[in-house]
Amino acid sequence: MPEDEYPHYVEFRHVYKTFDRPVLKDVNFFVDAGQTLAIIGRSGVGKSVSLGHIMGFMKPDKGQVIVAYQDITQMSEQELRRIRKKVTMVFQSGALFDSLTVGENILFSLELREDYNEQNKEDVVNGLLEMVDLAHVKDLFPADLSTGYKRAVAIARALAAQPECILYDEPTTMVDPIMSDDLSNLMLRLKRQLALTSIVVTHDLDLMRKVADTVMFLYKNEAIYFGPVNELDKCQHPHVKQFLAMDRVEISGKIEEE
After folding, report:
1. DSSP state of 137
2. Alpha helices, DSSP H, located in the chain
3. What pLDDT digit, counting tens, does each position of 143-162 carry?
4. C-alpha distances in Å from residue 196, one per residue of 216, 221, 249, 253
5. Following CA atoms 17, 18, 24, 25 in sequence, which dihedral angle do they give, to the nearest 10 degrees?
6. Containing H/E element for 88?
7. What is the CB neighbour count within 10 angstroms for residue 130?
8. Distant-in-sequence, close-in-space partners of 83: CB < 8 Å, separation ≥ 6
9. pLDDT tens column, 33-56
10. 66 burial class (0-12, 13-18, 19+ CB within 10 angstroms)?
């Protein structure tokens, strides 16, 4: 259960991170259980670095990172492994094992589950593939799949761990519009059916509007907007207005082409 000190499922409190240059500067945001946050902005502003901090792959130079109602900022790797049973990540690449079939990739996530026998594990694999509408690719290898299918399989594999929270890194990048729509529908369905907390890093404003409750807009490594998705259009920051205007131009151009 959440404690009074940390009431949000995921939260950044005044987070700073510098590599050869500042990457995150005084970033603050939060996500409540069962909600979806979109992190948007141009390349190189710290979107994926934010996910790395949530997973504990990186530690902030200053500030606090709260995950699963716990301050993970100074946690050891052993302590972080316990957090990662609750929070999982779907990488942009899919990160599937090329030598394993789709079914075997998902089964791999279940191998350490002592509470499942072999039949249970097979049933879970089949159920997860049904959930993501990919039962027909169970015996194929990753090389046989499109980028979009690989990401859907990666989502199924992530769900095998029965997480409370799932992080998506650019899930609709480099996929066609139909597959992009399929992936966004899948993410929305999982949110509603499983009450998953989720954070999605994306350039795709259609995806953002479809699945997110709140949005954080990063610009020059700072959060220049954090709030409800349906109020982003009211933001008066010139870069947000420019970003949204460019998206509207792209959308109208696509409509004219059709």
Report:
1. G
2. 47-54, 77-83, 102-108, 118-131, 147-159, 177-194, 205-211, 238-257
3. 999 888 898 999 988 888 88
4. 19, 27, 33, 35
5. 90
6. strand 87-90
7. 11
8. 56, 67, 68, 70, 72, 75
9. 999 999 998 877 888 899 999 999
10. buried
| Through-space distance between the first and last CA atoms of the chain, rounded to whole angstroms | 50
Largest distance between two CA atoms of the chain: 57
Task: Determine if residue 218 is left, alpha or beta; phi over 0 gives left, psi from -120 to 50 gives alpha, anything else beta.
Answer: beta
* Tokens, residue 126: 């089949």
For 155, list phi and psi in degrees, rounded to 5: -65, -45
Report residue 233 as tokens: 């259009």
What CATH code would you report for 1-86+171-258?
A: 3.40.50.300
Q: State pLDDT tens for residues 110-126.
A: 765 656 666 677 888 88
pTM of the model: 0.87
The two tokens of residue 12 are 């950044």
Distance between CA atoms of 138 and 34, rounded to whole angstroms? 29
Round to whole Å and give the CA distance between 62 and 13. 9
CATH code 3.40.50.300 region(s) in the chain: 1-86+171-258
Which residue type does 165 have? Answer: C
